[in-house]
Amino acid sequence: MANIHCNYYSNALQLNTDINVVIPTPNSDELMNHKDTSYWREGAKYQVLYLLHGTYGDYSDWCHLTSIEKYAQNHKIMVVMPSVANSFYQDMVYGPAYLTFLTEELPEYLGRLFPASTRREDSFVAGLSMGGYGAWHVALSKPEQFAAAASLSGALMFPYGMEDRIKDPKAPWPFRAIFNSTDVAAIAQTETNLFVQIKKLQEQGVALPKLFQTVGTEDFTYQQNQAARRELEKLHVEYTYEEAPGIHDWDYWDTHIQHVLDWLPLANTTV
After folding, report:
1. Are 159 and 178 in contact (CB under 8 A)?
2. What is the pLDDT of residue 176?
3. Whole-angstrom distance, CA of residue 177 vs CA of residue 56
4. Local structure of 209: helix, strand or coil
5. CA atoms within 13 A on the CB side of 184
6. CA distances from 39 to 26, 59, 81, 198 (A)
7. 144 contacts: CB under 8 Å, gap ≥ 6
8. Whole-number Cα distances in Å, 43 to 26, 39, 106, 114, 117
9. Measured in Å, how far apart are the chain's first and last C-alpha atoms?
């Protein structure tokens, strides 16, 4: 397994940015025990999971606080962890274009620099909390590009539930810079709202990515996740849901990212 930290200038963001990239490679266990390492061959491409952080986080969180490196090695999938500050994965009105970075520039960059497949059937996105919302938002913004999206304890009803915070200048999210507005009702009518995105794709006859949702029963986002389930069912969207005892913490996410990897349509080999 290789864990590669990249710092590079992003034209989409107009600044230097950091990403971590985990790539499965033959390890000592595989070699000593004569396990199959045929995935490691010239010209092979890996399926890719874009793994997103939450509020206050960055590209390093998943590697520091979970065993994602081991899980990526076991599943033979490349995992890419970017940084987007507290942007809620939007193209900011006054600030970097984080959604464009994630959906356009970063996949092209990875395809040039690493053995990363860019095919839809090999491209997935997942995240926690703000990044759980971000995972669905990214995939629904580019359904022709991403086959599946998973939310762990996600803020799936965003911007609803933020009525008090969105006007607070001390809130961690720079909402006025993101949207040039603090009007939650108006923002909710745009494609910032996941369910506006879904309705638009349904009207256009576009196939949705597969959706996965998990949340702890003691998590403060639990009721928000139940509201999201009701919206999905109103729209007759197929999705996979799970819940388990747990709060909004890394113990829950370390356990349930393994469930996400088991759920993804992985080839368990390079393509």
Report:
1. no
2. 85
3. 17
4. coil
5. 12
6. 9, 26, 22, 36
7. 120, 206
8. 16, 10, 20, 11, 11
9. 17
Distance CA 23, CA 113 (A): 12
For tokens 């603090």, the residue is 182
**pLDDT attached to residue 268:** 65
List the domains of the chain with CATH numbers.
2-263 (3.40.50.1820)
Residue type, 187: I
Could you list the beta-strand ranges (E) of 83-234: 123-128, 148-152, 210-216
| Residue 80 or 188, more confident | 80
Distances (CA, A) of 13 to 34, 95, 104, 174, 191: 45, 8, 12, 16, 21
| CA pair distance 215, 223, nearest whole angstrom | 10
Give yes or no for a contact between 151 and 213, defined as CB atoms under 8 angstroms apart: yes
pLDDT in tens, 222-249: 999 999 999 999 999 999 999 999 999 9
